[in-house]
Amino acid sequence: MRIALLSDVHANIDALRAVLADLDRRQVDVRVCLGDSVGYGPEPRECLDLLLESCATVLAGNHDLAASGRLGYARFSSIARDAVEFARQRLTPALRSRLGELPDEENLGDLLLVHASPTRPRDYAYVRDTAAALEQFDSHPFRIAFYGHTHMPVVFRDDGEQVTLSLQPSVKLLPAGRYLCNVGSIGQPRDQDPRACYAIHDSTAQTIAFHRVEYDVDAASSRIRDAGLPEQLATRLLVGV
Ligand code: ZN
Which CATH number characterizes residue 201's domain? Predict the structure, then answer.
């Protein structure tokens, strides 16, 4: 089975449409979204509608729950708070309550899907390095887990003795290893590559491949500015930070 893993679209409809068009050209059996469909960007309603229609599973991210009113956002940066307020105004009451009902995690066969981390999904900790990944491997029995939240694509491997990381575009999964994979961000990459990022897991071939999709980043950036969202949200898209 080939599974497309999308995450952190963040109301960027230009990036999402480009990824869905890219996926139409590849053979995948199922699409899933690991959360943060809204926040930061100007098109929360359109993105959420499109994701609910095109993905078998859509998880809740912290920005989704904040926009739904189910999570406080005192810990958010001021630009993130502005964008959550914006999303709340743009979403219909029905979509806001739908956002609040999205699951924190899902099992797909032997795969675990979460937004931020397997161990404590609602803590929204950032698993960015091998030390943080080791904590996840030690406190949860998953064999293969996919997550988003940091907007940085990476594959961590636990071989039983140590945890290593790979930044390669394609990774072969070995039977003895356990894996924790961040699928990157579609709508707001932070690895200094502005192209939209998603992953495909092939459970037969036991591979994970990252795909980068070019889209009109200038247009998406202008749309953020035109919507009256903070300037920094428009400029960061251009450089992928
Ligand atoms: Zn996010």
Answer: 3.60.21.10
